[in-house]
Amino acid sequence: MSDSGKGSDTAVASPKGLLGLPHLGLRDKWERGPIWMKLPVVLALVSFCFYLPFLNILPFAQVRTDLSAAGTDWSSVLFLIVVYMIVAVGLNVVIGLAGLLDLGYVGFYALGAYSVALFGSSSSPVTISLQEKFGFSEGWAVPFAACIPLAIAFALVAGVILGAPTLRLRGDYLAIVTMGFGEIIRIILRNATDITGGPKGVIGIPKPPGPVDADGRDFFNGLDVHRWYWLALIVLFLLMFLVRRLENSRVGRSWLAIREDEDAARIMGVNAFKFKLWAFAIGAMLGAIAGVLFASKQGVVEPNGFKLNLSFLFVAMVVIGGSGNMMGALFGAFLITYLPERFRFLDQWRPFGFGVALVAVMVLRPQGLIPNRRRARELEDRKAEAEEAAVDV
Amino acid sequence: MGALSGSNASVVLPSVNGAKLALKQWSADNDDCEISLEEFDTEGDPAKATPAATKMATDETFIGVMGGAFSGETRATKATFDDAGLTMISQSATATDLTTEEPAAVFHRVIGYDEVQGAAIGRYLRDVAGAKKVFVVDDSTTYGEPLATKVKDELGDLVVDSDKTQEGQTEFSAVVSKIESAKPDAVFYAGYAAEAGPFLKQLRDAGVTATFVGGDGLYGADFPKAAGDAAEGAIVTCPCLPADKAEGTFGADYEAEFGEAPGAYAAEGFDVMTIFLAGIKDGARDRKAMEEFVDGYTGKGLTKDYAFDDKGDVAEENVVIWSYKVTDGTLTAEQEIPKA
Amino acid sequence: MDFSSLIDQIGEHTANGLTKGAIYALVALGYTLVYGVLRLINFAHSEVFMVGTWAVLGVYTVLGATGGSGVGLVILATALAALAAVVASASTALIVERVAYRPLRKKNAPPLIFLITAIGCSLVLVELFGHVFRVFFGPPFGRALVSIPSLIDTEVWLDLGKTSITNMQIIVVVGAVVMMVALDTFVNKTRLGRGVRAVAQDPDTAALMGVNQDRVIMLVFILGGAMAGVAAILYTMNYDITKFDIGFLIGVKAFTAAVLGGIGNLRGALVGGLLLGVVEVYSSTLFSSNWEDVTAFVVLILVLMFRPTGILGESLGKARA
Question: What is the ipTM of this complex?
C-alpha cells in the first residue's frame, strides 16, 4: 500500500509515540509519582465508582442508560459491567499474562453460576438428593457463603482437569480444545436433567445474606440494584488487588517470560507447565466468582445463558482493551457491555455495528485501546520487522 | 418485554403488533387519556432482561407489563416485578413452573401452560388421530423438553420410543433411522420451526409416512415454509383461536395495519392490551389498583374467556387448544381439541 | 445406549455420516489452507460458506427453478447455482482477507488480533443477511429459516438390503472427494500450487525466490472460499435450507475436523471431516442427537492427547518444521 511507507517513518522514528503521547506522558508520571500523591486520586476514583449509580447531574448524567422511557436500569447495567470486568480480569491472566488462548472461558463462568445454583437453591436436584440422603428438612440448602468456596473449588479442579492434559498443546490447538471444553460443559448442563435441572435450569438461587431494609425487602433484592453493584465492585477491587500482587511476583514474571519466549524461559529454569497451569486455575477461579455473582443476582440460571458466543465476547473484551494490561481489560469489558445498552435505540443494528466496530478498532489499533506497555513494544518490533522485510523485497 | 431482535424475534413481534393495534383502536375512542407503550428488547436472553425489568419496576409510570415472551426471561424477572407490585400478563410464556414454583402474585398469563397443552396434544394423538404407536422427539430446549415429557405422560404405553435433538441441528439421519425402525403411526415433535422444517423433510425423504404433529412452537408461517412440500398434512396444535373464529375484525384490521396476516400470539397480544386498557378505563391509575383489577378481571377476549385463578393462570376449562393442518403450504384450522 | 440398532444398520449410519462429514471436509479445507500458509485461524470462514448457500437461493429464485421444473432448467439452474456459490464464497473470502487481515499482516500483528477481526467480520456478514438486507430488500432475508427449492428428488440409487444409499448421498460424497482430489493435485502439481507450498514452508525464503506472497495469500483465500462454495451447493441440494446463522455450527465442526485430521494438511481435512461426520452419526444413534457435540469434542481431545498435531499431522508444504 502506498501510504504504508509514510506510516513506517513515523513509527520507526518514534517507536514510543503510542497513545499519541510522548513516552514520558501521564502514565509514566503517574507510575513514578509518590504514594501520598497517588492515594487521594485512587480514593477519589474509587468513591466515584461507588457514587456512579446516583450520578444525575447534567451533562454527566448522559452516561446513564435509563434516560429514555425505554432505557434499562442504570444500576443493573453497572452491575453487569462489573461482573464482566471480573471475567475480563480473570481471562486477562490467561490470555494477556500467560499468553494462552482460552476460547472456553464461559465454561468456568457457568461452573461458578451452577455451583451456587445447584447447592444453594433448595429446589435444585442436587440439594433435593442431599436432603433425602441426610434427612434434612425441605427448605434446606447450602448457605450462600459456603457456596463461594465450593464454586472456587469446582473451578480450580475443572481448570486443572482441563489444563493438565491440554496445556502441552501449542497455541491454536489449545484454543480449539478449550472451546470444546466450554461447549461440553454447556451441553452436559443441558442434557443431564436429573442432576442439573436440564434446559430450564435452576430457580431459587440464594442471595447474599443481609439485613431486611426499611421496605421489608431483603437487603439484596431486585429493585435496589445499586447494592448488588456495590457488592460486585468490592469483589472486583479485591480481586484486582490480588491479581496485581501476583503480576508483580515471581509467578507474574514467569508468565511474562513464558509468553515472550517459552523456550528461553525453560532454559532459564522456569517450569513453564506449572506456571501455565497456575494461570489457568487462577483464571478459572475468577471466572467462577463472576458466575456466582451473576447467578445470585439473576436468581435463575439456564444452560442457554452460557453459549459459545459469550466466550468470544470475553476474549474480545480482553483484546480490544489491550491484552496483558488489566486496565485495558477493564476498559474493554466496560465498552462491550455498556455501549449496546446505552445505544438500545439502535435496536437491531447493534450487532452489526458491533461487528464493524470490532474490525475497525483492531485494524486501527491492533495493540488495543489501552495497551500493555511491554506488549505494545513487542508489537512495534514486529511491525518494524515486517516493514524492513517489505523494504528488502 | 420480549425478544424483539435476535433469532427468536419472529415469535414475539406479532404479539407486540397485536398490542399496538389494541392500543390504537382504544386511543381512537378515548382521546382524553394518553397511554404509551414502551418496548423492551431482551433478545430472549434472561441476562439482558433483568436490567430492563428493574427499569420498569422502579419507574412508577409503568403500571402494567406485557411479557415476558419466553419462559426463561419470565423466570428471571418475575421476582423483581413482584417486589415492585407491577402486574405482568404474559402472552406466550408457557412453562408450567412459572405459576407453580416460587409463585409471584403479579404474574398472569393468557395462554394455557405446557401441562394443559401437553395433555391436549396427547388426547389429540390418541383420540383424534387414533395413533397406536407414537414416537416423541424434543429439541432439548426449555420449551421442548417439558412439553414432550407431558405428552409422554399422557400417552403412556402408546409411546414406542423417544429421542432428543438440539437447537441448530440440520442433519437428522440418526433420529430418522430410529423412527424408521420403530414404525410409529405418528411422530410428535416438541420444538421450533427452524429444526422441524429440515427434520420433517428428511423424515419424508426417508419414506416415513407417519402423521407429523407439532406443538405451538411450530405455529406460524415459518414452519410450512421451512418444510416445503413435506409439511403437507402435518398437524400443528396451538392454544390459540383461528383468526376467523375470533370475534370482530381483528384479522382484517391487523393485516391492514401491518401488511401481513397475524402471526403467532398476535391475538394474545391484543387481548393482554385489552385487559390493561379495560383496567385504565375502570379507573386503575396505579399499580395496586391495576393488580386488583386484573386479578378480578372477567371478560371475553379474542382467543378465550378470561378469568385468572389465584396462580395467575386462565382456568383450564377456558383454555381452547386447536389443531391446524398444513394444506397447500398454509395452516388451516382443523378442529378444537376436545377437553378431557 | 442402543448398540443393536447401530450394529444392525451400520452401513446406513456410515453412509449418513460420510455425507455429513463430506460437507465438513470441504469447509475444513478453507481453514486448513489459510492456516497452512498464514498460521492463523480464519474464524470468518463459516460465514463464507453461509454466503454461498444464499447465492444458490438467489440463482434458483432468479431462474424460477422449482422441484417441478424441466430437466434442462434443473441442470442449468444447478450448474449456475454451483458457479454462483463458488464465486460468492470466494469473493467473500477475498474481501475478508482484504478488509480484516491484510492491514494487520502489514503490521505483523499477533494472531490473537486476527481472531478478533475475524469474529467481527463474521458478525458483520451474519447481520447483513439477518438484518441489514432485510431492511433494504425484505424477505427472504432475516432471522427465519429459509427453504430452498429442492430441484432433484431424493431417490434410492443403491439398495444393499439393510443399507440404502440415495442419489444425494452419492452426489455429496463424490462431489466432495472429486473437489478434494482436484485441489490436492493443484497444490502439488501446478506452478501456482508450488508457490503456495513454498510460502507455507518458509515465507521469507519463498519471497527471496521471487514468489509474490500477497498473491499466494489471495490465492489461498480464493481456493478455500471456492471449496466452501462447493460445500454450499452440496449442502443446499441435500438439506434444502439456509439461514443467516447457519455457518456457525458447521464452521465450528469443520474447524474441529481440520484440527482432528491435522490442520494445514489437505488430506487431513478429508480424513478429519469424514471421521467427524461418522462419529457424530454413530453417537446420535447410540445416545441421542443432543450428545453429538460432546462426542465430537471428546474424540478431538483424545486424538490430540495421543497425536498432538492431529491424525495425519500438519503440513501443507510437507517439510514443515
Answer: 0.89
Q: CB of B163 within 8 Å of any CB in chain A?
A: no
Summarised one tens digit per residue, pLDDT across range B238-280 is 887 776 676 678 888 888 888 877 777 888 888 888 888 888 8
Contact status, residue C300 vs residue A180, Cβ threshold 8 Å: yes
* Nearest Cα residue to B297 out of B12, B52, B59, B87: B87
Partner residue opposite A69 with nearest CB, options B38, B47, B76? B38
Degrees, nearest 5: CA angle A97-A98-A101:
105
Q: Min CA distance, C158 vs chain B (Å)? A: 14
Which of A123, A199, A225 lies nearest to residue B54, judging by beta carbons?
A225
Between the alpha carbon of residue A86 and those of residues A97, A234, A277, B229, B230, the distances in Å are: 15, 11, 20, 51, 50
Neighbours of C8 (CB within 10 A): 15
What's the DSSP call for residue C41?
A: -
Q: What pLDDT does C78 receive?
A: 92
Neighbouring chains of C at 3+ CB pairs under 8 Å are: A, B
* C252–A358 CB contact, under 8 Å: no
Per-residue pLDDT at A391: 58
Query: Does the beta carbon of A160 lie under 8 angstroms from any beta carbon of chain C?
Result: no
A neighbours by CB contacts (3+ pairs under 8 Å): B, C
Q: Which residues of A touch B (CB under 8 A)?
A: 65-66, 69-73, 75-77, 80, 123, 187, 190-191, 193, 198-201, 203-204, 217, 221-223, 225, 294, 297-300, 302, 304-305, 341, 344, 347-348, 350-351
**Of the listed ranges A140-144, A154-158, B47-51, B131-135, the one predicted with least confidence:** B47-51
Q: Which domains does chain C have, with CATH numbers?
A: 3-149+157-306 (1.10.3470)
| Least Cα separation, residue B164 to chain C (angstroms) | 6
Task: For residues A59 and A48, give the distance between their C-alpha atoms in angstroms, rounded to a whole number.
Answer: 16
The pLDDT, as a whole number, for residue A266 is: 86
Residues of chain C short of pLDDT 70, as ranges, are 1-2, 315-321
The predicted structure's pLDDT at residue C316? 60
Q: Which residues of B touch A72 (CB under 8 A)?
A: 40, 51-52, 54-55
